[in-house]
Amino acid sequence: MDKTRTAAIAAAIAAVLLTGCDSGTERTHPAPAAGTPSFPPLTTKPLAEICADLTSYWVRERLAGRGTGDYMKEGMSNAQNNIVISVMDAARKERARAGDAAAEKLITARTTSDCAAHYRNGRPTEPPWH
């Protein structure tokens, strides 16, 4: 009797477990259409634009006293940090000379031009940590 009972319990457990299994014959989601990419491109901007966005952000944050002071924690390379330092110095002087609006224009123009020069070949012109 114990063998019969054990076999019945095992059969019941197997039935319960197999009930939730997918047979693989049904699809809950339609297959993607042919030629449709399944993921977006890795980047949608040129590296120089990404650099300009990143460096101008950190120039503004540091000038406002909200920077971390650690360029690696801020997601920048040494070269990008050098751009930030250079632009910050120029923006401080421009702010003292002509006000906030002039400093803002300088930040945008300088980070754009400095990053364009750094990525003029589509990649950094020097190793990232030099």
Name the descriptors.
single chain, 130 residues, mainly alpha, 4 helices, 58% helix, 0% strand, elongated
Structure description:
- This protein has helices spanning 2-19, 47-63, 78-98, 100-118.
- Helix 2 (47-63) crosses helix 3, helix 2 (47-63) runs antiparallel to helix 4 (100-118) and helix 3 packs antiparallel against helix 4.
- It has four helices and no strands.
- Helix content is 58%, strand content 0%.
- The chain has a domain at 47-118.
- This is Lipoprotein.
Please state the overall shape, judged from the principal axes of the Cα atoms.
elongated
Q: Percent of residues in helical segments? A: 55-70%
As a percent range, the share of strand residues is: under 5%
Q: List segments where confidence is low: pLDDT < 50 over at least 5 consecutive residues.
A: none
Organism: Streptomyces cremeus
Protein name: Lipoprotein
Map the helices and strands.
Elements: H1 2-19, H2 47-63, H3 78-98, H4 100-118
Organism: Streptomyces cremeus
Protein name: Lipoprotein
Provide a brief overview of the structure.
The chain is mainly α and 130 residues long. Helix content is 58%, strand content 0%.
